[in-house]
Amino acid sequence: MKVLRLSTQLHKWIALVVGLQVLFWVGGGLVMTAIPIETVRGEHRAVELMPDALELGALPALGEIARRAGVAPVQAELHTTPRGPAWTLKPAAGEPVVVSAATGRPFGPMSAAEASAFAKGAYKGEARVSGAVLLETAPEETGRTGPLWRVDFADREKTSFYLSPDTGEVMTRRSGVWRIFDFFWRLHVMDWNDGEDFNHPLIIITTALTLSIVISGFILLWIRISRDLKMVRAAPRREP
């Protein structure tokens, strides 16, 4: 009886404390599993673009590019972009520098019309561009730093493409679906700041308490089943 009483009290009071978070876990898990991850990432809105081949013979050597850019890189990457071939030069300290592979200089400012055209070219669908704005600081939802162009589309998901202001490349995609998913993800991991920390003390403690609910629930179930079986065995049997 002491075990039954203790298990009942633990089960009741701990369930009262963590019950709301358990509801968030189950409800959030349902939402996150019901929405295809490809839709969350906006992959159904992305055109599979084939990059143009680089004409290496027509481009200055990397050493000359680094000299013009005034960077001593420890790592360099050459790639095609909507604004032409570009070098990303990473110095030993500081942020990477993006320059034109043809001139070794930074690309010029990009207009809203250019940003809209680049985004439209990477977008799969018939929706029109509803707005384009240069953000001096990347929004938290992008997971990036520095300025970005945000181009919005008038589709049902409220899709937004975030573009590099240097090269016009689509850096990331966001939508209303992504924001709903992100909201439930933050509830799920109990990190309401940026949703990046999923092993902090609060979630560990809550998970441990939830485990205690399950264990005490099994104890209660076993005790009650055992009691019912004893009652069935002790009941007098009628003679046929």
Automatic annotation (TrEMBL):
<feature type="transmembrane region" description="Helical">
    <location>
        <begin position="202"/>
        <end position="223"/>
    </location>
</feature>
<feature type="transmembrane region" description="Helical">
    <location>
        <begin position="12"/>
        <end position="35"/>
    </location>
</feature>
<protein>
    <submittedName>
        <fullName>PepSY domain-containing protein</fullName>
    </submittedName>
</protein>
<dbReference type="InterPro" id="IPR005625">
    <property type="entry name" value="PepSY-ass_TM"/>
</dbReference>
<keyword id="KW-1133">Transmembrane helix</keyword>
<keyword id="KW-0812">Transmembrane</keyword>
<dbReference type="Pfam" id="PF03929">
    <property type="entry name" value="PepSY_TM"/>
</dbReference>
<keyword id="KW-0472">Membrane</keyword>
